[in-house]
Amino acid sequence: LARLAVAPATAELPGANGRPTRIAIGRFDLQLVVAVALGRTETASLLPPALASLEARDASLLARFVMGLRAAAFQRAAMPLAMDAASGATAARRRQVTAEALTARLGDALNFPDLDEVVRGLGFRNLGDGFRAPVRTRVPTLFISGTLDARTPPANADEVRRGFTDARHLVLDGAGHDDDLWTATPMVGERIAAFVAGRSMGNVTVVTPLLRVPSGPPPGR
After folding, report:
1. 206: helix, strand or coil
2. How far, in Å, CA of 181 to CA of 200, rounded?
3. I need a labelling partner for 36 at 20 to 30 A (CA). Which of 15, 50, 61, 166 fits?
4. Edge-to-edge strand order for the sheet containing 167-173?
5. pTM
6. Higher per-residue confidence, 98 vs 201
């Protein structure tokens, strides 16, 4: 990050017209790539070889990440942006984010794009602090979290479930976000079935296969 802040790394990749395209990668590019890739174990597993290559002055693997993110930035769906913008954050949480971003290794990359700008530009409505108030209920509820989930970590579920008087928290040790929370191990389905049937779930921490870090990028990546 310090090196990229001084001078961007460059790499050449095949362009849409078949000609080489030169990609410049700056500090924020790397922060954003890491923040996004940590959301799933499939992409997180590619970070070690990508960073090792970058350390050896080869930015080609990282450039593939960057190209993908830049393409996605121009094809963002309105629905998730509207949901995030409507959910918003309390003033206290915003102050916390601003303060922590000053020293956080990834800065504020995880919150890109700026939702305040999205709200103003697209006219979405922030639902206010009433929407963000703690939920309190006696409805039996099962929370599922992955310890490698960089977007909705187990600590988030622990905070939310304080208002749930009948809640269980299934923690998948080694799982990330998205499909990991369902397909990481068959025991996920077993625990869900037990909860729905009103049976004991047994151990609420399940160890899943750890990251399989390849020595290089998979074919075609």
Report:
1. strand
2. 20
3. 15
4. 141-146, 167-173, 205-207
5. 0.79
6. 98
What is the model's pLDDT at position 211? 64
Angle at 17 between CA 11 and CA 18, to 5 degrees: 60
Q: What is the DSSP letter of 106?
A: T
Helical residues (DSSP H) of 56-206, grouped into ranges: 60-73, 78-87, 91-101, 115-122, 128-131, 154-160, 180-183, 187-196
Q: Under a CB-based contact definition with an 8 Å cutoff, are residues 149 and 176 in contact?
A: yes
Condensed to tens digits (0 to 9), the pLDDT of residues 165-208 reads 999 999 999 888 877 778 778 888 899 999 999 988 876 888 88
| Mean pLDDT for the stretch of residues 135-153 | 91
Q: Sign of the CA dihedral 195, 199, 204, 208? A: negative
Cα 39 from Cα 152, distance rounded (Å) = 9
Is there a contact between 40 and 34 (Cβ–Cβ < 8 Å)? no
Q: What is the pLDDT of residues 6-54, one digit of tens each?
A: 999 999 988 777 788 899 999 999 999 998 888 788 888 889 999 999 9
Task: Please compute Rg for the chain using Cα positions.
Answer: 20
The pLDDT value recorded for residue 216 is 52
| Tokens representing residue 8 in the block | 């961007």
Contacts 24+ apart (CB under 8 A), 118-126: 118/81, 118/84, 118/85, 119/85, 122/78, 122/81, 122/82, 122/85, 124/81, 124/82, 124/85, 124/86, 125/86, 126/85, 126/86, 126/88
Determine the Cα–Cα distance for residues 153 and 146; give it in Å rounded to an integer: 6
